[in-house]
Amino acid sequence: MSNLHVHRVQHTYFTKESAITALENIELTIEEGEFVSFLGPSGCGKTTLLSIIAGLLKPTEGVVTINHEDIHTNDSRIGYMLQQDYLFPWKTIKENILLGLKMRKEYTKEKEEIALRLLKDIGLTDVEDLYPRQLSGGMRQRVALVRTLAIDPSILLLDEPFSALDFQTKLKLEELVSKTLMSLRKTAVLVTHDIGEAIAMSTRIFLLSNRPGTVAKTFIVPKELRSLSPFDARQHPAYNELFQSIWKELDHLESKNKN
To answer: What CDD domains does this protein map onto (predicted)?
Structure first.
């Protein structure tokens, strides 16, 4: 069964002086367990589309459904991980990862144990009583991932979650997130400006055109890459071939915008 469906979504931002259409006629389906990415020129509406999928923004036209049911604000089926970790500095790591469960009034001792176990599974041991300031940027992003996964969403939305990190930490987190989501059989949607990251982590890549954003092209990541870890995928010859194809298409879209 199809997990996530975006049907004829359009969104326009209105001000007193103007109306700017950010997205136009977005139509796509993401299957259960898929990892897809949104790529495109700056200002093409990638984050707007992610916010609509998250239920944070109601589209001007169109609908988004999960298993044929409309999404809604604070939808428990959706988890959202941002570029910044947004951990509360005055709360311990344990308090931070349980925050979503408590806000949704879904906290149980069993769910706490699952969250703490997941913290250990992603390499963070003996940190639950520490505070965010005592952890590195990469470690805080791992905590943010656990906080998101603690509510057990069926779909995880990732808005450039690694872009503020150094390259080595970024690669390690790509590996960790990919492995974790695969083991939990989660559906994931990544917004990124990094072509390599999209190829290394995705099954499909949706390339959005300039404003108003539309799906200009869909790239299917070859099976030989999807079977590898993100680090190993980057070493495969098929990676460079796909990278060049996406680069040329993206460059074409950006050139059209300048003209």
So the answer is: ABC_NrtD_SsuB_transporters (cd03293)
Domain hosting residue 240, numbered range: 223-247
Domain count, the chain: 1
Phi (first) and psi of residue 165, to 5 degrees:
-100, 155
Under 8 Å between Cβ of 198 and 162: no
Q: What's the token pair of residue 62?
A: 């169109």
Q: Domain for residue 218, yes or no?
A: no
What does the pLDDT look like over 192-225, one tens digit per residue? 999 999 999 999 999 999 888 899 999 999 999 9
Please report the DSSP string for 136-176 in residue order: -HHHHHHHHHHHHHHT--SEEEEESTTTTS-HHHHHHHHHH
CB 251 within 8 A of CB 245: no
Tokens of 11: 């969104």
Q: How far apart are CA 94 and CA 12, in angstroms?
A: 40
For the stretch 35-81, pLDDT in tens is 999 998 888 889 999 999 998 899 999 999 998 888 877 677 888 88
CA dist., res. 4 & res. 124, Å (int): 32
Stated pTM of the model: 0.89
> In the chain, which ranges are continuous DSSP H helix?
46-53, 93-97, 99-103, 109-121, 137-150, 167-184, 195-201, 223-226, 230-233, 237-258
Torsion of CA 82, 202, 248, 194, to 10 degrees: 30
